[in-house]
Known about the structure:
The structure holds two protein chains of two kinds. Chain A has one helix at 42-48, and strands spanning 10-11, 22-24, 29-31. By secondary structure, chain A is of the alpha+beta class. Chain A has a domain at 20-53. In chain A, strands 2-3 form a two-stranded antiparallel ribbon. By secondary structure, chain B is an alpha+beta fold. Chain B has three domains: 2-109, Rossmann fold, CATH 3.40.50; 116-122 and 125-132 and 199-305, D-amino Acid Aminotransferase, Chain A, domain 1, CATH 3.30.470; 137-197, 2-Layer Sandwich (Dna Ligase, domain 1), CATH 3.30.1490. Chain B has helices at 12-23, 87-103, 112-118, 121-131, 144-154, 244-257, 286-292, 296-305, and strands spanning 2-7, 28-31, 40-47, 50-57, 60-63, 67-74, 107-109, 138-141, 157-160, 172-173, 177-179, 193-197, 201-210, 213-220, 238-240, 261-269, 274-280. In chain B, the strands form four sheets. A five-stranded antiparallel beta sheet of chain B has the order 15-14-13-16-17. A four-stranded parallel beta sheet of chain B has the order 2-1-6-7, with helices on one face. Chain B starts with a strand and ends in a 13-residue tail after the last helix. The chains are: A alpha+beta, B alpha+beta. At the A-B interface, β1 and α1 of A face α1, β2, β10 and α7 of B. β1 of chain A pairs antiparallel with β10 of chain B, so a sheet runs across the interface.
Amino acid sequence: xxxxxxNYAFPRGLxxxxxxxxxxxxxQLNVLPDGRPAVSDPDLxxxxxxTTSTAGSATHFDD
Amino acid sequence: xxxxxLTSEEDVTADLVVARLHGTxxxxxxxxxxxxxxxxxxxxxxxxxDFDGHLSVNGHVLSMGGLRSIWVRRPGEPxxxxxxxxxxxxxxxxxxxxxxxxxxxARWMNHPRNADQARLKPWQLRVAHLSGFAVPPxxxxxxxxxxxEFVEEYRDVxxxxxxxxxxxxxxxxxxxxxIGPDTDFSAVAxxxxxxxxxxxxxxxxxxxxxGSRLFAARKTAGPDxxxxxxxxxxxxxxxxxxxxxxxxxxxxxxTLAGLAYAAFDFAEDWDGIWWFLECNQGGxxxxxxLETGQPIAAEVALWLAQHRADRRASDRRG
Lengths: 63, 318
């Protein structure tokens, strides 16, 4: 029998968003194509949604 | 003295803190335990009655003697990126890494032992009661009859997961959902159900606690919105003051739980009462900071860089 709580689960849907930044190992943070830290563009971070309360990785459940 | 940040490379919320630490000239080592062994290298010596250890990744090196603090942000499973990953390799790597880190004299945000306990939703409710929060009546049960009786008593009840959505493919989401007395509760026998009296709310509150500093933000709820994480309301997060009673309860909670960092969720009802919903010991704060401008990352960086001992037990007000 399917656990009760899972009756209220539904597919999350695949995200097609590609983050417009990449990790810079030397600086230890993510940078934009022009070399600026990704965090220097708050509007962009809000748009890609990677800082939201549901953006935890698959190994975490701390919203 | 160096700050160690355990998190994944894609964690841009951690970037907010790394940038602050760079700005103050504080040495940082950012490491994802998933990269160990492989990209990251570890060595710890326990000999001659002494202990020393080193971690390195991407050309950055950290000695345990120079370790000031450890921020457990969004670490991957140890050895997850190894060439031949296995549960055994993960267990061995976890022993090596966390055994070494526990051997060092460093401050934790948050200590893994306290973090594990703080993730337990039933325990959260108990601590919330003891701390003085208003807590909605809640039941965890595997008995369909008790679940039915709970809903008959409180009428408007929500069901939610204690541990988050199940992992797997396809990815699932599990929003807090309103249920009624006509619900079929037979499947409660197949897994513990978390049922809670629904709090009709006019706003969601996110309160982030860093050390003894509190940052509260409020977002007006949409009509009939049950789970504040889902659904576009047209409203944004705005900073709000922390009521004195709530501030005292938060400090009591984090003291009891032994947490240096915590993100609390409340439902603000139509009388203005903040009802405790949960406390995320590793909760996100990036979205709040970006929308409100509250300097949460700066406070995290300051806490991690501080030399002094943790003052939470004696300093009850931020």
